[in-house]
Amino acid sequence: MTTPRWLNEEEQQLWRKILAFVRKMERTLDETLLENHELTSSEYAVLVSLSEANGHEMRLRDICQDLDWDRSRTSHQITRMDKKGLVAKVKCAGDARGVIVEITPEGERRLKDAVPAHVETVRSLIFDPMQKGQMEVLDKYFTEVLSSQACIDKDAESKVE
Protein backbone atom coordinates (compact mmCIF):
# COMPACT_ATOMS: atom_id res chain seq x y z
CA MET A 1 0.00 0.00 0.00
CA THR A 2 1.33 3.43 -0.94
CA THR A 3 1.40 6.35 1.44
CA PRO A 4 -1.33 8.91 0.69
CA ARG A 5 -0.18 12.16 -0.87
CA TRP A 6 -1.78 14.40 1.77
CA LEU A 7 -3.01 17.82 0.78
CA ASN A 8 -1.02 20.74 2.08
CA GLU A 9 -2.84 23.60 3.83
CA GLU A 10 -3.30 25.65 0.64
CA GLU A 11 -4.61 22.63 -1.29
CA GLN A 12 -6.94 21.69 1.58
CA GLN A 13 -8.41 25.20 1.64
CA LEU A 14 -8.96 25.20 -2.12
CA TRP A 15 -10.49 21.71 -2.01
CA ARG A 16 -12.98 22.82 0.64
CA LYS A 17 -13.85 25.91 -1.41
CA ILE A 18 -14.49 23.67 -4.43
CA LEU A 19 -16.81 21.46 -2.37
CA ALA A 20 -18.64 24.49 -0.96
CA PHE A 21 -18.94 25.97 -4.47
CA VAL A 22 -20.42 22.76 -5.89
CA ARG A 23 -22.92 22.54 -3.02
CA LYS A 24 -23.94 26.19 -3.43
CA MET A 25 -24.28 25.85 -7.19
CA GLU A 26 -26.37 22.67 -6.95
CA ARG A 27 -28.55 24.06 -4.14
CA THR A 28 -29.18 27.36 -5.95
CA LEU A 29 -30.04 25.67 -9.25
CA ASP A 30 -32.27 23.12 -7.49
CA GLU A 31 -34.12 25.79 -5.53
CA THR A 32 -34.73 27.89 -8.65
CA LEU A 33 -36.10 24.94 -10.61
CA LEU A 34 -38.23 23.58 -7.78
CA GLU A 35 -39.67 26.84 -6.49
CA ASN A 36 -40.43 28.40 -9.83
CA HIS A 37 -41.12 25.42 -12.10
CA GLU A 38 -41.71 22.35 -9.92
CA LEU A 39 -38.85 20.53 -11.64
CA THR A 40 -35.92 18.80 -10.00
CA SER A 41 -32.49 19.35 -11.49
CA SER A 42 -32.50 15.69 -12.56
CA GLU A 43 -35.81 16.15 -14.39
CA TYR A 44 -34.45 19.29 -16.00
CA ALA A 45 -31.31 17.43 -17.15
CA VAL A 46 -33.38 14.67 -18.75
CA LEU A 47 -35.70 17.15 -20.45
CA VAL A 48 -32.75 19.10 -21.86
CA SER A 49 -31.18 15.91 -23.24
CA LEU A 50 -34.44 14.88 -24.86
CA SER A 51 -35.13 18.37 -26.25
CA GLU A 52 -31.72 18.39 -27.92
CA ALA A 53 -32.05 14.85 -29.33
CA ASN A 54 -33.15 14.07 -32.85
CA GLY A 55 -36.95 13.70 -32.76
CA HIS A 56 -36.97 14.66 -29.06
CA GLU A 57 -36.50 11.01 -28.12
CA MET A 58 -33.63 8.81 -26.98
CA ARG A 59 -32.97 5.24 -26.01
CA LEU A 60 -32.71 4.82 -22.27
CA ARG A 61 -29.10 3.68 -22.58
CA ASP A 62 -28.25 6.86 -24.51
CA ILE A 63 -29.72 9.00 -21.72
CA CYS A 64 -27.48 7.07 -19.29
CA GLN A 65 -24.44 7.92 -21.39
CA ASP A 66 -25.49 11.51 -22.06
CA LEU A 67 -25.99 12.29 -18.37
CA ASP A 68 -23.26 9.95 -17.07
CA TRP A 69 -25.79 8.16 -14.86
CA ASP A 70 -25.99 4.44 -14.15
CA ARG A 71 -28.85 2.40 -15.58
CA SER A 72 -30.71 2.04 -12.29
CA ARG A 73 -30.74 5.76 -11.54
CA THR A 74 -31.83 6.61 -15.07
CA SER A 75 -34.56 3.98 -15.12
CA HIS A 76 -36.02 5.16 -11.79
CA GLN A 77 -35.83 8.81 -12.88
CA ILE A 78 -37.60 8.09 -16.17
CA THR A 79 -40.31 6.07 -14.39
CA ARG A 80 -40.99 8.98 -12.01
CA MET A 81 -41.08 11.44 -14.90
CA ASP A 82 -43.39 9.15 -16.88
CA LYS A 83 -45.83 9.14 -13.94
CA LYS A 84 -45.72 12.96 -13.87
CA GLY A 85 -46.44 13.15 -17.60
CA LEU A 86 -43.10 14.76 -18.49
CA VAL A 87 -41.87 11.87 -20.65
CA ALA A 88 -43.31 8.74 -22.20
CA LYS A 89 -41.65 5.33 -22.43
CA VAL A 90 -42.10 3.35 -25.63
CA LYS A 91 -40.81 -0.14 -26.43
CA CYS A 92 -38.05 -0.08 -28.99
CA ALA A 93 -39.13 -1.60 -32.30
CA GLY A 94 -36.92 -4.55 -33.12
CA ASP A 95 -35.43 -4.77 -29.62
CA ALA A 96 -37.79 -6.11 -26.97
CA ARG A 97 -35.42 -5.07 -24.17
CA GLY A 98 -34.87 -1.54 -25.47
CA VAL A 99 -36.81 1.48 -24.26
CA ILE A 100 -37.28 4.75 -26.11
CA VAL A 101 -38.00 7.82 -24.00
CA GLU A 102 -39.91 10.71 -25.56
CA ILE A 103 -40.49 14.17 -24.18
CA THR A 104 -44.23 14.89 -23.87
CA PRO A 105 -45.93 18.20 -24.70
CA GLU A 106 -46.15 18.82 -20.92
CA GLY A 107 -42.42 18.13 -20.58
CA GLU A 108 -41.68 20.51 -23.45
CA ARG A 109 -43.88 23.21 -21.90
CA ARG A 110 -42.31 22.86 -18.45
CA LEU A 111 -38.80 22.94 -19.91
CA LYS A 112 -39.56 25.98 -22.06
CA ASP A 113 -40.93 27.79 -18.99
CA ALA A 114 -37.91 26.85 -16.85
CA VAL A 115 -35.08 27.67 -19.26
CA PRO A 116 -35.01 31.49 -18.91
CA ALA A 117 -34.83 31.43 -15.09
CA HIS A 118 -32.30 28.59 -15.16
CA VAL A 119 -30.04 30.44 -17.59
CA GLU A 120 -30.30 33.64 -15.55
CA THR A 121 -29.38 31.72 -12.39
CA VAL A 122 -26.36 30.16 -14.13
CA ARG A 123 -25.31 33.56 -15.47
CA SER A 124 -25.61 35.35 -12.12
CA LEU A 125 -24.02 32.54 -10.11
CA ILE A 126 -21.18 31.55 -12.44
CA PHE A 127 -20.47 34.08 -15.17
CA ASP A 128 -21.28 37.48 -13.69
CA PRO A 129 -18.63 37.24 -10.93
CA MET A 130 -16.02 36.00 -13.42
CA GLN A 131 -13.19 38.32 -14.38
CA LYS A 132 -11.61 38.63 -17.81
CA GLY A 133 -9.48 35.59 -18.62
CA GLN A 134 -10.90 33.34 -15.91
CA MET A 135 -13.29 31.51 -18.24
CA GLU A 136 -10.47 30.37 -20.52
CA VAL A 137 -8.35 29.20 -17.57
CA LEU A 138 -11.26 27.28 -16.01
CA ASP A 139 -12.26 25.79 -19.35
CA LYS A 140 -8.73 24.49 -19.94
CA TYR A 141 -8.45 23.16 -16.39
CA PHE A 142 -11.83 21.40 -16.41
CA THR A 143 -11.10 19.91 -19.83
CA GLU A 144 -7.83 18.48 -18.50
CA VAL A 145 -9.46 17.08 -15.35
CA LEU A 146 -12.35 15.52 -17.26
CA SER A 147 -10.03 13.86 -19.77
CA SER A 148 -7.50 12.59 -17.21
CA GLN A 149 -7.11 8.93 -16.29
CA ALA A 150 -8.33 9.70 -12.76
CA CYS A 151 -11.79 10.43 -14.18
CA ILE A 152 -12.23 7.19 -16.11
CA ASP A 153 -15.55 5.64 -15.16
CA LYS A 154 -14.89 2.24 -13.63
CA ASP A 155 -18.60 1.49 -13.81
CA ALA A 156 -19.20 2.11 -17.53
CA GLU A 157 -20.68 -1.33 -18.14
CA SER A 158 -23.61 -0.68 -15.79
CA LYS A 159 -24.64 2.31 -17.91
CA VAL A 160 -25.34 0.31 -21.03
CA GLU A 161 -28.82 -1.06 -21.64
From TrEMBL:
InterPro entries documented for this protein: HTH_MarR-typ, MarR/SlyA-like, Transc_reg_Sar_Rot_HTH, WH-like_DNA-bd_sf, WH_DNA-bd_sf
A UniProt-annotated Pfam family: Staph_reg_Sar_Rot
Organismal lineage: Bacteria, Bacillati, Actinomycetota, Actinomycetes, Mycobacteriales
Annotated GO biological process: response to stress
Organism of provenance: Corynebacterium callunae DSM 20147
Alphabetical list of PROSITE patterns matching this protein: HTH_MARR_2 (PS50995)
Keyword DNA-binding: yes
Identification of the protein by name: HTH marR-type domain-containing protein
Keywords for the protein's UniProt record, in alphabetical order: DNA-binding, Transcription, Transcription regulation
GO molecular function, one term: DNA binding
Residues of the HTH marR-type domain: 11-147
